[in-house]
């Protein structure tokens, strides 16, 4: 069985080593005057200066003043390391970590720590120890231990800095250790001290919560929710949601008291960038307004759907809300023309319905397809006229003569007339001729009912 979970985790990015007190050469590097820096650093490096070697490595590592070249950067770092540069050792660890070589990175970070470089080494050591999320519930001893070691590194950084963010990073990894152990297979599950793992995670979460750190409140709510204590989880998640944590909104959606509240939270999670919320947000919005008859409300729903699609760059549901809105506006527009058509007989002459013709090809129709003539005075409700027929060999739907007076009355009253087939309904357009009004098919890509 796979392990699935959603938690707020720290954004793990590149943290390069910098000097506490800048030397003249480092000040020159930081000034971004590339010509002056290289003019000073290159001869110093050739003479074996460890700082110059390190800074040249950093320039090639970051691409500052020269094209980014990790191979050259590593070469400079290695030479500086041999001369005792802890910062060079640390940055070699970063290169190894970014290449996916965690074991090598850990060794290098530990060497930098032993040389006295505590920060940012501890934070990057936390990154290196952090395990990938297990796919299955078996063999979780190592991920639990690795998450604990990652948390320990961040916790040590916190003891040096008192930064609530370091405490949060520690709590996130301690939480993961507890979570992995909790979901282990029964035999392995018994080998873990679950109470101790939980106590450690909660203790470090509380440091963030005491600092009103929204992600810490969110993760505490997730922990309580994982334990089934939804009543206690809700206020914790609400603290996170109030400060815009998307994961908090995501979980509150699942705890919502009604569908509007559920949609509101899921929509917020998606708009705040949570990828896992994009599909359910679009689906919930579609389900909520697919039967809406108020065009103003429907228009706002379409705007909200467009915002979700723009944020996700993916379309998970059909564009039926937009189609429904276009159809509703079309029907309302025709209704506004009531009384404009002259009082003349009405006939049906709608062609292009054979398979090789434009409407037949688009809607998979053809000769002998059955149709019914319907009217729409409301965009969400069709009324039968009793007029039926089949597409003739020429690809046309025609009336044998004039249509019944009731159809004429509906047309002059601002109703939309349409041909209803098994899977599609195609609106008709009225054309005034000298002796009658003729109904033919509207634009093939025009509005139509779902």
TrEMBL record:
Alphabetical list of Pfam families matching this protein: Sel1 (PF08238), TPR_8 (PF13181)
InterPro entries: ISR_Activator, Sel1-like, TPR-like_helical_dom_sf, TPR_rpt
Domain of life where this protein originates: Bacteria
PANTHER family in the cross-refs: DAP3-BINDING CELL DEATH ENHANCER 1
Name of the protein described by the UniProt record: Uncharacterized protein
């Amino acid at each position: 069985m796979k392990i699935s979970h959603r938690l707020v985790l720290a954004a793990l990015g590149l943290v390069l080593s910098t000097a506490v007190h800048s030397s003249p050469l480092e000040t020159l590097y930081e000034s971004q005057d590339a010509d002056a820096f290289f003019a000073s650093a290159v001869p110093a490096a050739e003479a074996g200066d460890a700082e110059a070697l390190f800074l040249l490595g950093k320039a090639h590592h970051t691409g500052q003043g020269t094209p980014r070249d990790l191979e050259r950067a590593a070469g400079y770092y290695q030479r500086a390391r041999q001369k005792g540069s802890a910062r060079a050792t640390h940055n070699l660890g970063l290169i190894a970590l970014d290449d996916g070589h965690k074991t090598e990175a850990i060794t290098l970070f530990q060497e930098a720590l032993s040389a006295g470089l505590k920060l940012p080494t501890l934070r990057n050591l936390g990154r290196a120890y952090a395990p990938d999320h297990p796919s299955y519930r078996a063999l979780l001893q190592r991920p639990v231990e690795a998450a604990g070691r990652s948390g320990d590194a961040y916790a040590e950084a916190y003891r040096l800095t008192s930064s609530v963010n370091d405490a949060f990073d520690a709590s996130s990894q301690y939480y993961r250790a507890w979570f992995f152990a909790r979901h282990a297979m029964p035999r392995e599950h018994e080998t873990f001290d679950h109470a101790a793992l939980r106590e450690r995670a909660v203790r470090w979460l509380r440091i963030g919560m005491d600092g009103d750190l929204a992600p810490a409140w969110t993760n505490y709510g997730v922990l309580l929710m994982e334990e089934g204590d939804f009543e206690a989880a809700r206020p914790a998640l609400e603290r996170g949601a109030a400060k815009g944590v998307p994961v908090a909104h995501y979980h509150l959606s699942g705890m919502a008291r009604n569908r509007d509240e559920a949609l509101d939270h899921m929509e917020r999670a998606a708009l705040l960038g949570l990828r896992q919320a994009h599909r359910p947000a679009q689906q919930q919005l579609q389900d909520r307004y697919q039967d809406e008859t108020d065009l103003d409300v429907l228009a706002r729903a379409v705007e909200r759907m467009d915002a979700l699609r723009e944020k996700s760059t993916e379309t998970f549901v059909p564009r039926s809300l937009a189609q429904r809105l276009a159809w509703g506006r079309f029907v309302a527009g025709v209704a506004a023309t009531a009384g404009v058509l002259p009082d003349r007989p009405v006939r049906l002459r709608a062609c292009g319905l054979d398979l090789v013709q434009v409407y037949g090809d688009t809607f998979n129709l053809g000769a002998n397809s059955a149709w019914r003539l319907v009217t729409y005075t409301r965009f969400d409700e069709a009324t039968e006229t009793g007029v039926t027929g089949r597409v003739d060999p020429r690809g046309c739907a025609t009336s044998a003569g004039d249509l019944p007076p009731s159809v004429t009355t509906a047309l002059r009253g601002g109703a939309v007339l349409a041909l209803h087939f098994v899977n599609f309904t195609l609106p008709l357009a009225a054309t005034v001729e000298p002796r009658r009004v003729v109904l033919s098919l509207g634009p093939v890509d025009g509005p139509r009912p779902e």
